[in-house]
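sorry to bug you again but im stuck and you know this stuff better than me. below you get a single protein, a line of residues and a line of whole numbers that encode the local backbone shape. mainly i need to know what kind of three dimensional shape the backbone takes. anything you notice is useful, everything is just below:

***
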Amino acid sequence: MMINNDKIFFNPGDKVKVKHELDFCPVMYVVEKVTRSYVNKDTNSKENTFIGIKCRWYDSNFALQEAIFSTKDLTQA
């Protein structure tokens, strides 16, 4: 995890968890940063938009789960 001017950057392999109070709050591993690319029709250039952080964890039934979270919802475990 890197902190730069009040922004938090997670790297693949970091342990994170959801910072909200939940009944089951597993420790998750960061897999990758998810972005979406599109072509701007005005400038005809390719632009990337940040979508979120893909995380993996095991649920209470030991099944592998995967989801994309906003960085605002994650904290270091």
Notes: The longest strand covers residues 45-58. The two ends are 11 Å apart (CA to CA). The chain is about 0% helix and 60% strand. The chain has one domain: 2-76.
